[in-house]
Design brief:
- The protein starts with 6 loop residues before the first helix and ends in a 14-residue tail after the last helix.
- The chain has about 210 residues and is mainly α.
- It folds into two domains: about 1-55, Homeodomain-like (Arc Repressor Mutant, subunit A, Orthogonal Bundle); about 60-190, Orthogonal Bundle (Tetracycline Repressor, domain 2).
- Mean pLDDT is about 85; it is low at about 195-205.
- The protein has helices at about 5-30, 35-40, 45-50, 55-75, 85-105, 105-115, 120-145, 155-175, 180-190.
- Helix 1 packs across helix 2 and helix 6 packs across helix 7.
- The protein is built from nine helices and no strands.
Length: about 210
Amino acid sequence: MPVSHSPAADTRRQHVLAAARRCFLANGFHATSMQDILREAQMSPGNLYRYFPGKDAIVLAIVEATLAEVTAAFEQTLLDEPPSLLQALTEILRAIERLDDDEGTPRLAIQIWGEALRNPAMASLFAEAITPVRQWFAQLVEAHQHRGLTSGQVSPERLANVLLGAIHGFIVQRALLKLDAASYAEGLRGLVAVPAGPPNDASGTS
């Protein structure tokens, strides 16, 4: 059956995706059946299949939307003047925390990573979404290296991988442990903040 595309159809598609998202958050991708989605969306099979040809198409649409949400969290930190590494990381953490409160995005992200190990289409979507994020981090690191605020002995790309890993670590801990952005950011501060240097000599000797 051809998939319907129109403003009204887009509204219905979003309705289906919202229902599917609730099912996936509750039961995971594999344990959720089309009957579960139909029941949650309160739609008949014939009506739903006008918008999605099957469960795989729904899953991929959810993956695209979730990856777009996470990517947007990075893009929101772009400023005319590059933010500090800590500022950038903190803003991203706060955005992910909001996405968790509003949409449960970190829990879906973990499911996506697992599916990407076995599903080439999801792996391709993930690689496509993460590439510009990694590039942005590398550009931010390079800007800090030019200003003498970050070690220039390691390539920006390798430092970007570590910073991205810190964000992924927060996503996992937010999903599983409900770790808050403020405490995670405080831990990062100890890793990326510029050391204050040794204290002044209290004896007053020169």
